[in-house]
Amino acid sequence: MNDSGETTASPIPPESSSIPLIDLHRHLEGAIRPQTVLELAEQYNMPLPRELEALRPLVQVTSPEPDLVAFLAKIDCAALPLMTLDACARITRENVEDAAREGISYLELRFSPCFIAQSHDLDPAGVVEAIVDAARLAERDYGVRTNLIGILCRTYGPESAMRELDALLTQREHLTALDLAGDEAHFPGELFIEHFRRGRDAGWHITVHAGEAAGAPGVWQAITELGAERIGHGVRAIDDPSLVEVLARQGIGLEISLTSNVQTSTVPDYASHPLRQFLEHGVLATINTDDPAISGIDLPYELRVAAPAAGLSPAQIRQAQRNAIEIAFLDEDERAALRQRLAD
What's the total number of domains in the chain? Predict the structure, then answer.
């Protein structure tokens, strides 16, 4: 982390450097630069500290969090200054710029328009449009292929999620997938079956946060009832050998975020993370950042530091990166281009 509060890209291990860097699981709201939070808070006279080091503990993990909800509270604080659509556009542009700085070739950036809109009564459809427009311009300017994933925030309940879905559908051609995130323990996936039917009918891919608070049954439900092609996190799937077998056999990818899982106490430490086991069983597991500004990390850090700490060999780190190419929400021409870069 540099003095301005931006994440400074870490050198990647030589064994991994020949493979295009891909991040399939990054939240826009969890990747806001602390310096930007500071500047927006000052611009809009928000009740937040005016010094970066005083602000940082409110918007960044400085010690392990007791649970996912405590981790999410830092995202709430970081998003508090998003008072205007211009602010939404700014953080989107900076997200893509930061990905370029990390050396990322392909980014899937996800966001919840109702989460962003809630604090200051913004129009959720306007939030979606602002983010879509900013992402396209940033993709052109910084050379990072960027796809957007719309999130339904389960924490607000199914009625709010349906309104959120309507907002996302106003830009259906500019989004690549639909996701479900938030409080998995209290708002199970069974409440959102109709939402995801509509999402599939819109032609979107489906990825679902599951297997954190709700365990392996939440992953089963996401696959069988919501149509998940990929699972966000999915750590507790390791508790059910038959589920691990299905993930491997059906090619359902896991979007793993090592540091985030430690910081939210989903796992007690890197060494306890089941990523290595998933890879050994042939599951298309990948390595991602989740909320890099909140976690104070970047994708090279996850490859250079977190993955070895989780027991991955250089070959397994490379396999996780190859897996990301295979499960990315890209058309076959773009996937083939990434494979060619891998072969060169």
Answer: 1
Would you say residue 15 lies in a domain?
no
What does the block give as tokens for 241? 């050998």
Residue with tokens 């077998």: 245
Is 278 inside a domain boundary?
Answer: yes
Inter-residue contact 166 to 173 (CB < 8 Å): no
Contacts 24+ apart (CB under 8 A), 194-199: 194/162, 195/152, 195/158, 195/161, 195/162, 195/165, 196/225, 196/226, 196/227, 198/165, 198/169, 199/165
pLDDT per position as a tens digit, 33-63: 999 999 999 999 998 999 999 999 999 998 7
Q: Contact at 8 Å (CB) between 21 and 316? A: no
pLDDT band at 17 (very low <50, low <70, confident <90, very high): low
Tell me the HSE value of 31 on the side-chain side, using a 13 A CA sphere. 30
- Burial label for 328, CB within 10 Å (0-12, 13-18, 19+), is buried
Cβ atoms of 201 and 224 within 8 Å: the answer is no
The answer to whether residue 7 is domain-embedded is no
Residue of 212, 229, 255, 302 with catalytic role: 212
Side-chain half-sphere exposure of 295, counting CA atoms within 13 A = 25
d(CA 303, CA 316): 10
Is position 1 within any domain?
no
The Cα–Cα gap between 33 and 316 comes to 31
CB atoms within 10 A of CB 169: 18
302 catalytic, yes or no? no
Q: Is the separation of the CB atoms in 180 and 152 below 8 Å?
A: yes
How many other CB atoms sit within 10 Å of the CB of residue 277? 13
Mean pLDDT for 2-12 is 49
74, amino acid identity: K
Q: Tell me, yes or no, if the pTM score tops 0.85.
A: yes
Give residue 158's domain range: 21-343
- The enclosing domain of 109 has a CATH number of 3.20.20.140
Take residue 337 and report the two structure tokens written for it.
Answer: 């281009």
Task: Look at the alpha carbons of 260, 266, 271, 275 in this order and tell me if their dihedral is positive or negative.
Answer: negative
